[in-house]
UniProtKB/TrEMBL annotation:
Gene3D superfamilies: Dihydrodipicolinate Reductase, domain 2, NAD(P)-binding Rossmann-like Domain
GO MF term (any one): nucleotide binding
Record protein name field: Gfo/Idh/MocA family oxidoreductase
Segments forming domain Gfo/Idh/MocA-like oxidoreductase N-terminal: 53-172
Domain of life per record: Bacteria
SUPFAM superfamilies: Glyceraldehyde-3-phosphate dehydrogenase-like, C-terminal domain (SSF55347), NAD(P)-binding Rossmann-fold domains (SSF51735)
UniProt organism field: Panacibacter microcysteis
Amino acid sequence: MTLRELLSPTRALKTATESILLTWKEIANLFGLSQDIYVNPLHRPLSKPVTAILIGAGHRGNIYADYSFIRPDEVNIVGIAEPNAVRNGRFARKHDIPAANRFYDWEDVFKREKFADAVIIATPDNLHFEPCMKALECGYDVLLEKPAAPTEEQCRIILETAKNYGRIVSVCHVLRYSPYFRQLKQILDAKTIGEIISVQHLEPIEYVHMTHSYVRGNWRNSKQTSPIILAKSCHDTDILRWLINEPSRYVQCFGGLSWFKQENAPEGSTERCTDGCAVEGECPFSAIQIYLRDKKRLYVFDLPEDTGKWNKIILRNLFNTNYGRCVYRMDNDQPDHLTVNIQFEKNITAAFSMEAFTSYEGRCTRVMGTKGDIVGNMETYTITDFKTGRETSWSLKTDYHGGGDHRLMQDWVQAVGHQDAQVLSSTIDVSVESHLMAFAAERSRLNKTIEPVMLNK
């Protein structure tokens, strides 16, 4: 072969990047993928709707239960257990729950003879384990809000108990059902960028979400609920395990609580934002700004339909609940930033960051393969082919949790209706592994060690 032939443009690597913007349909055709990312060959018609009882009628519980309005032929909500009288009554009216099937204590559900196929557990983290165990003992299948339980021992017990009773337990790893991650999974499984070598993954919590849930809110103290790597980011350990599709082996974690502490309280600040705080007007974490002026995250206040009453109720909550307290004067201990390094089988590595101080939410992912790389941010993707230099991009728009909440419900209903756990994208076995990764990360952070992920004990 001559030098002229070797330098021929038809043989040479392109030096100028060729950029193409396509739809997912065109991407699927280009790479030989399925255009419908939700096709599940295990789905089939149900002979009757699955009946379910909701335990915990908060924000997440209502989202899952509302699937019954979209597909009443698939699921029917027949009972409610919720200690908050306003939420209990509101949910019962919305779903036409008879008085006999309304409970204020979850334990009372299981004092009755079994009256549904399954239960949906959407209680606070420290109230996941006991209702789940009782449900399994009483013969119910379970949809369990993440995290499955706040301790490693309890997670292992749930897994063992579900197997012993032959019951279905699905943990709400809803990101697996979002268009963003479904498309990414297809791209990687098809070896479009070759073999996976490494992944970088970012979870930007967003500063308002951080202060609302993990500084002022119910998840602010890890000893009372669960570590933030578990409470918030077991979604992400699960996603990394799913995308890489290899067992995790070792975890190393750095990070901690840097900013939301007493010593960082500005001069002139007060115990509550409503106490005449001298810096309230310039504080980005002001409860008055977030809840009263901007009307964000209001679902915690159980507001009535009459919006004319909202300001009075919001103010009353700011004067009397943790949501009105100064972010620098709480009993919070959750880290506001984490960096987690994970080693998987085949020497595949992943670097995961959880960050509170961002102006945006969502996830950002970079996957490095042997033939190319791919970059995504929940709304756009770009694949770059090493050989040709071609960049192929597409965009997508999704709703809360990336469109995954009701897709999760669809799979769970199918699994319960046909008594087939394999319908689920994430069985309880795989879910527990992602939790073990999170527990290992927390041990590493606290002990400054590299921790093994002990899948079997």
